[in-house]
Design a protein that fits this description.
The protein is α+β, with helices and mostly antiparallel strands. It has 5 helices and 5 strands; from the N terminus they run αβαααβαβββ.
């Protein structure tokens, strides 16, 4: 939906609808890439470009998600990996997304958040989301071109 530049309310409407198809308390695995997606559908940078980190943050903050972290995202890996043959990540010391994943993991694990969500739209491509009641996380996402 992001690649097609659809309004953000469309993505959030789909997520609300999906939530009603699962038992209470169920979590969906959210990810921006994994070994299947990387090999045939492209890296997260190919698919989402500059919006990859915003979608990662959303996957950690959204109440009914369980974020999936895939090897190499902390670099980020910008290479499509072979699916059936052994392939290696080109690890470097420049792990530009490492702090992003550490902070998001810490927030998710340490904060005492309720599943209470509130959304506010600012046009077709920008929205804010708050999660929690007493302790809150506020996320502002801009998918504007």
């Amino acid at each position: 939906m992001i690649k097609e530049h659809m309004p953000v309310h469309t993505m959030l409407d789909v997520l609300r609808e999906q939530k009603h198809h699962y038992p209470s308390g169920a979590l969906e695995m959210f990810f921006t890439t994994n070994h299947d997606e990387n090999s045939w559908n492209g890296t997260e940078r190919e698919k989402y470009g500059m919006y990859a980190n915003a979608l990662t943050a959303f996957s950690f903050v959204y109440s009914w998600s369980l974020p999936l972290i895939y090897s190499g995202q902390e670099m980020p890996n910008e290479k499509r990996l072979a699916f059936f043959d052994k392939d290696h990540l080109n690890w470097t010391e420049n792990l530009s997304n490492e702090n992003l994943y550490k902070k998001l993991s810490h927030l998710r694990k340490e904060m005492n958040l309720t599943n209470e969500l509130h959304f506010q739209y600012f046009g077709d491509y920008v929205f804010s989301m708050t999660r929690g009641s007493e302790e809150k996380i506020w996320l502002l996402v801009n998918f504007d071109h």
